[in-house]
Amino acid sequence: MKKFFALVAAALLCAGSATAANPTFGLKAGFDLTNFWGNDLPHGMKPGYQAGAFLEYRFANSPIAIAPEIVFAAQGGKFSVDEDADLSISTKADLTFNTNYINIPVMLKYYVTPSFSIDFGPQLGFNVYSKATATAGNSSTSASVTIDMGEDTNSVDFALGLGGTYNITSNAFLQARYTMGVTHAFNDGVDAQNGNIQIAFGYRF
Q1: Does 117 score more than 60 pLDDT?
Q2: Are 72 and 100 within 8 A, CB to CB?
Q3: Which of 29, 96, 125, 156 has CA 20 to 30 A from 104's CA?
Q4: What whole-number distance in Å separates Cα of residue 168 and Cα of residue 188?
């Protein structure tokens, strides 16, 4: 954790001390496909969304830029579980995990061309909502139960992000990114980390 904040501080210090173009501020929003990877939960995808703001510091006469962001992201996973009892009765349940985060990625951007950059950097996330819903039965006879997973979810998540940004105009852009969690999403040593495929539209002011 200390290394993350040291990295952020160093990046912002370099951005402030170097000769750079005026920093730009913008907003972004988009569609996510999220899941858990690891050995203890299935890897089923759940649709979600993201929305937030960013600053971009572009160094003068350089293809390098730094872009810290703050983003709300609806994450989690969705999958089905089948259980066969000794009485040959099969029970199927659909499980949905809704784990929302305030994420703070700090992306290092390398502009391959004036309109396209490759983006990579660390992300720190803070869990603000965590619930799981189990739904069993069929369309005519179904039942669902929702439980609060807040105490079972790690409050802090660390991830790495890799993607690209395409500038449609000098203000508007499209962005694609994958963030892979490297810390456990849940307590008690559950081997399940967050994964998030992001497609976003943004606008610089």
Answers
A1: yes
A2: yes
A3: 96
A4: 45
Query: Which residue type is seen at 122?
Result: P
The dihedral sign for the CA sequence 144, 147, 149, 150: positive
Three-state SS string across the chain, please? CHHHHHHHHHHHHHHHHCCECCCEEEEEEEEEEEEEECCCCCCCCEEEEEEEEEEEEEECCCCEEEEEEEEEEEEEEEEEEEEECCCCCEEEEEEEEEEEEEEEEEEEEEEEECCEEEEEEEEEEEEEEEEEEEEEECCCCEEEEEEECHHHECCEEEEEEEEEEEECCCCEEEEEEEEEECCCCECCCCCCEEEEEEEEEEEEC
| Degrees, nearest 5: CA angle 42-33-79 | 25
Non-local (6+) Cβ contacts of 22 within 8 A are: none
Give the pLDDT confidence score for residue 44 in this predicted structure: 87
Q: What is the pLDDT of residue 5?
A: 55
Q: Which residue has the tokens 């369309």?
A: 139
Tokens 């539209």 correspond to: 201
- Taking Cα atoms as reference points, which of 174, 31, 62, 58 lies closest to residue 116? 174
